[in-house]
């Protein structure tokens, strides 16, 4: 009884000193066993019980003591007291096995004769009754020893993708991306192939296939795809994305796009991002994604022209083009092109070369500068940017990125030059409007970016003429 009380007090003291919830839980079990042993010893010492009951208590009570001591020793020796965690080398299932092993040794000491006599019968009974359970148990121990995966790892087991959430004596629980739990018996794991996406690192390669028309050379398609993926979120820059020709199919050339992402859990979002970026890039560069159809071609029948009227109406609201006649704006609209950008894509990057301007026909875009933190302006329908690149070939002065899906009208310097050749006075009128707009922007930036010597209107017009190759 004194031994039981001493062990009970010791277990409670260790439990109170530890912040580890696992240790506290196990020591609570040991404390209950020590208390039961103390009560049993008190009943034997002071109670008036039949002799056969006393014999049974004296036989069984040491087992309570042995199990409590084994459980307490494993809890105290293996687990950290001052940290609320379980050692990777000794998870729940391994600690349970150690406790049972120590308890088995103690039981052999107390019941050696009876155990030897019952071994043959017990082995047969246990073997048949617990065949599946023991198979799961030993498979669970093998998993903990070999560690093909751990809790938190992303794996594929039996055709199911998911994150390992728990490993027990009987089974391993996996949480799928759909939020469902799949319970796989440990014995089944020992016979199945396991793919671990979290080892040796979380970096995972994602592949997407896309078809493109035979009309566009493969190297051009590859360049368009790689440019669309440049700087995309979720994608790793190293290893860099790559594009391979995978097949010459009946209606298209099939390209295999390979990228790396730092998190397997994001693979579906990565595939969505790749396909979305490629779609918009193909639209901008005139690359078609064909599908099996029958096309009847008639000689002498041309395709309908694009909606130049809609582009002309969008150009009506551009202040630097206000001096152009309606006919000139219509001519400029006919020579321009409509481009689409997905939300998140960079339309132009600060410092990049350029020779065109953009008019925002639909959507929203954000303007950022490398010298400032965050967004400096928000562009909406009717806004325009890039006029200095159009007129002088200057590098882009800011980064403009699509906040939502954007439809833009891109006016190239060559298209503008063709309109100007018919009316040279356009240069002075447009340059004056651009100069007025630029002066306002410079005043807005003056507090952040000290300016150099101001460019005179005459110098600016001369620079525009040189860039557009206009003599006189």
Overview of the molecule:
The chain is α+β, with helices and mostly antiparallel strands and 472 residues long. It has 4 domains: 2-129, no CATH class; 148-196, SH3 type barrels (Roll), CATH 2.30.30; 204-285, Alpha-Beta Plaits; 308-467, Jelly Rolls. It has 15 helices and 16 strands. The chain has a 5-stranded antiparallel β-sheet with strand order 4-3-2-1-5. Strand 7 (242-248) and strand 8 form a beta hairpin. Helix 1 runs antiparallel to helix 2 (21-46). It is elongated, with a radius of gyration of 38 Å. The model is unreliable at 117-131 (pLDDT under 50).
Short descriptors:
4 domains; 4-stranded antiparallel β-sheet; alpha+beta; SH3 type barrels; single chain
List the helices and strands and how they pair.
Layout: H1 2-17, H2 21-46, H3 51-78, H4 92-110, H5 112-129, H6 131-146, E1 154-157, E2 160-167, E3 171-176, E4 181-185, H7 186-189, E5 194-196, E6 204-212, H8 218-229, E7 242-248, E8 253-261, H9 267-285, H10 308-316, H11 326-335, E9 337-341, E10 346-348, E11 356-362, E12 365-368, E13 375-379, E14 384-385, H12 387-392, E15 399-402, E16 406-412, H13 413-422, H14 425-445, H15 457-467
Antiparallel strand pairs: 1-2, 1-5, 2-3, 3-4, 6-8, 7-8, 9-16, 10-15, 11-14, 11-16, 12-13, 12-15
Helix pairs in contact: 1-2, 1-3, 2-3, 3-4, 8-9, 10-11, 11-13, 14-15
